[in-house]
TrEMBL record:
Residues 631-826 form the Peptidase S9 prolyl oligopeptidase catalytic domain. GO terms for molecular function: dipeptidyl-peptidase activity; serine-type peptidase activity. GO terms for biological process: proteolysis. It comes from Shewanella insulae. Residues 1-22 form the signal peptide. Residues 378-538 form the Dipeptidylpeptidase IV N-terminal domain. InterPro entries: AB_hydrolase_fold, Peptidase_S9_cat, Peptidase_S9B_N, Serine_Prot_S9B/DPPIV. This is Prolyl oligopeptidase family serine peptidase. It holds the Pfam family DPPIV_N. Keywords: Signal.
Amino acid sequence: MTGAFRGFGLSILTLTILGGCAATPASDTQQTQTTQASTQVALATPPKVEQPLTLKQIMANPDWMGILAKGEYWSDDSQSVYFARQAHQSPLLDYYQQPLASGEASKLALDALHQADQQYGVLDEARTRKAYIYQGNLFVKDLLSGKVSQLTRQNTKVDGVRFLANGDIAYWQGQQVFRIHGDSGLYEQIANIKMAKEPKGVEAPSSYIAKQQHRLIQYVALKQNQAKEKEQYQAELVKQDPTMTAKTWYLGEEESVSQMSLSPDGRYLLLSLVDKNYSWRAEHDIMPNYLGSQGYVDAVPARARVAEDKYPGERLVLLDLERHEKRDITIEGLTGFDEDVLASVKAENAKAQGESYKSEKAPRRVQLMQDWAWTQSAMQWQAKDNKVAIMLEAVDNKDRWIATLNLKSGSLNTEHRLHDDAWVNYNFNQFGWLPQSDTLYYLSEETGYSHLYLKASGAKPQPLTQGKYVVSDITLGPKAEYIYYKANKDHPGIDNVYRVKLADGQSEQLTQWDGQLDYSLSPDGSKLLLKASRRTQPSELYVQAIGGELKQLTHYTSDAFKQYAWQAPEVVKVPSTHGAGDVYARVYLPQGYDKARADKYPAVIFNHGAGYLQNAHYGFSGYFREFMFHNLLTQQGYVVMDMDYRGSKGYGRDWRTAIYRNMGHPEVEDLKDGVSWMVANTHVDAKRVGTYGGSYGGFLTFMALFTEPELFQAGAALRPVSDWAHYNAPYTSNILNTPDVDAIAYERSSPIEHAQGLQKPLLVMSGVLDDNVFFQDSVRLVQRLIELEKPMFETAIYPVEPHGFRQPSSWLDEYRRIFKLFEQELK
């Protein structure tokens, strides 16, 4: 360790371990409404704690909080729920079925798992059969009788399945597509794709020597004629004999199949192809594992960096399986397909280099939409007709298109274009067809918030939701009367489920929750399965009949956790002095809080990770260790705040894109306002405030200490990004474009470029096996600080840890150091 930190004893570690506390938890069913003001605001008094927390307890294996349900989904008959639990220290999941009638969950035996209703199965048109994949094999369930039939038993896994319009089943394995005929039981291979050059047939002699050989040597000519005759015979046999397997498709050796989708009648196969030479990594992209199982250093492959990741995009090909015709799909039908959308950025960067830039139109690289949350395909066929809608995005991140495909010409027609000068969101992209119509439904952020739209072919889009709230997780009801959705209409940090009637566009609220939730609609459309939480209550499963009462289904939170008097953070609005409106934040007050006491309080601001993530909400935080750590800090006399700084999720497009080409600067402005708010409202000493966070939160800690050195007296950066040019392309290129195009944005936004500003104590902690934010990020920054002759930093490394730590001992060591830093520098 290096640096000039003062030593002290960790008295908190000697406190008793949490267990059997009989204190009553604070009520969290009523929301605290805070009035916006620049002066004092009223905050609730924290609950009295009779048994203090310890770091060892809160950083222990989280099993002690309860072994909670996850991966929940409905049974096919809507009468029970399936979910998984992971027993204490087990690497395996156990699966359960819980009938709604009895309320008693039973563990499924291994030999019964294949019969469990499968979450991602597909239904036939009549909704009487369900096909699904289990352990790589194909099964079909008769929903009327409950009978399950296994259709394949192979080592080669099935990759996808669908019912065809006539009830036949089609499935694909690798680059082969099969059809099971329902009337005869025949298994037919309808497509065999080879990414190779088509073999040359029998070739006539072309050179002088070859022609001479055939002219002079009768045997050679005879063999040539016989081979040609066999070739012609075989071609005619395949063409006329209905028992023959379809011809193989040879699509060249320069590409590979990325995705495929089969039309409802099984005639058309839509393929997305990508350059075969593209790789997610380069040869030098390795991550050393210094604790390899054989005692050596293992070289673990790692992803490419955005500075080197040159994704070529994808191209679409349509195969007519009936006529054996291939159509290359052109992108000219995409509105703006050749626009120079980065012209101003390129001109600015060229000017900085003393050069000029001339804008010219050119076809852009595109790919199938890569939504980070959905489970659907970006290629959606109408259920019965050969109509397909495709969602594509530009590799430059500025456009998203929903286009329909002309199957005869191979041309695209733009149905909807979503353009964003910053970047198109990688969430909120669900779409599909209304049954037996030419109308599409989809989500779009075009008004500044994600909302639900309908669009008939050739008509203008029709909004089904409107307002300053976010719509997500849409579900088309089983009878297509309603579309169900989740939205934060009442408060950015409160979720509820709604449905809109397609006949008249009227929405109704179905749940009255006061925290965060996820939902799934029962197959019969009569009930909702909710996974819901509140600020001090981890997620449990609930069921609510449409129009009925809410019923809690699981009670897996441990008594030890429930009985503790956790402080529910207040969700407040911090007024921005930088033109951002209000910044939502969670605030925790010290035990025995007294705003009139002589000594002011020290404070800590936590910076959440991911950047685009919401944490200042009324649900149980995904940062549950940090939630408990913040409770511990309040017991030691700290005020704690965690902010949904600009760039966070849940507040619309403008909040999301406020950091475009300028990461780390708007967010630090928000942190400054957070400190000012605490000083004005919670009796905090502005000269005794620290900050910490992991991943994006670690990056933000760097930027705060480097660019505003008087704002915080100390900071801890966990698994932090120090140079965005070294992070991955899918995330970073959205916000900063690419380094070759926009060096200005990378230099402006990367902490290593601002390291000379460090003046206050900094703790840097990284996992050596982090394949998300590389350990190299911290290594490079440390060397930069050494060369800058900065004495006020320390480092800690964790040899066996990936990005999200796994070992309780690592969590404990990490937070001991964070706590020590704050006790040392802020008290």
